[in-house]
What does this fold into?
Amino acid sequence: MSVASMRRATRESVSGLPREFWWLWTSTLVNRLGAFVATFMALYLTLDRGYSASYAGLVASLHGLGGVVSSLGAGVMADRLGRRPTLLISQSATAASVALLGFMHHPVAIAGVAFLVGMASNASRPAVQAMMADIVKPEDRVRAFSLNYWAINLGFAISSMAAGFIAEYSYLAGFLGEAVMTLACAVVVFLKLPESRPTQARDAAGKSTEPRVGMGAVLRDGRFMSLVGLSFVVALIFQQGYVGLPVAMGTDGFTSADFGLAIAINGVLIVALQIPVTRYIEHRDPRRLLIISSLLAGSGFGLTAFAGSIAVYAMTVCVWSLAEIVNAPTQTGLVVRLSPVHGRGRYQGMYTMSWSAAALVAPLMAGFLIDRYGAEWLWGACAVLGTVAAGGYWLLMRGLPAEEGLGAEEAMVASPAAAVVSVRKKKGRAGVSA
It folds into this structure.
């Protein structure tokens, strides 16, 4: 591909999205650039504080449990208070709790604050995804979610390298650095992002004429809850790249540096391929994409059972990384498609919870299977789960009506931010593209 073709492809991938999306994208990138706690918590507790690996695992589990607890509450907040207030509360609380964690010394205090960090940091996800769905046209949502996922991985890749050097100097500096970057996200949200929560039609008495979407309605939505269950299964597979893979490689005699080299391929591929792959899959059948990505994820981890060298491990990482690139934006777009306009926060909160729950269960699953039966059983289980998920997506998507875009008038009723974009287009000044 020529340089001109690459430039044209990049321009087409990022064009046509509203200015509000790019500020939200910037907030996501800044947030991930400051990531430190999730990456270096285990090393901080074992090397710097001298605690056992078991205690470090307990703290990591409490951090994940905090995310599970906050996911649903944050989704309700995003619908009731609004996306913008939820983001500001979450990011401010994250900055305060991360900074506080750096000064904690007692094991009980560290565990308690880690739980709070998990709650605060995960509370922003439902609001971000709901706001993105509010301000981006239906036909552009897969591309928007893909670009946001790309920003997450780009920021994480850069922060992981930088945080390694910071950790050699001072772990406290890393905690405080993440707090500052998270506060910077809150500033971006406060200054640049308008509230996007869709407005509800009301009668003469000021009461809403539309049905209320509570958590009970979410739980009774059989198709959506099936998607949440499938999301949990897929997330359980992907999590093994960070909990099962390092243990299995260590058991085979490979070093932590070898694991770092293998897993680094995941981030490199996502940064390099996310945008071009999204251009290919953007308007294709989501059922086929989810089925293929599930089979790729299962087979990628399943092939790990035959790995005996770094090269083979790297090849398996390539396979399931491609599955991740396809699955993430497609599945997030499907969540929005199944969500009622006035319940997007709650639906996104339930979806986020499936990933948080998988982060809790995956280490237990890996530890049990590897200790009792060997790593080959873990990789075989991943292959089976991938096949089960593919079959589940095939059943779930049968009879799903095609998604239709919002008209201009409907968009103006649904979302204040969408109304702004619509007015700009009418004046010949479409939303700024990167």
Observations:
- Confidence is low (pLDDT under 50) at residues 404-434.
- Residues 14 and 287 are 25 Å apart (CA to CA).
- The chain has two domains: 18-196, 220-400.
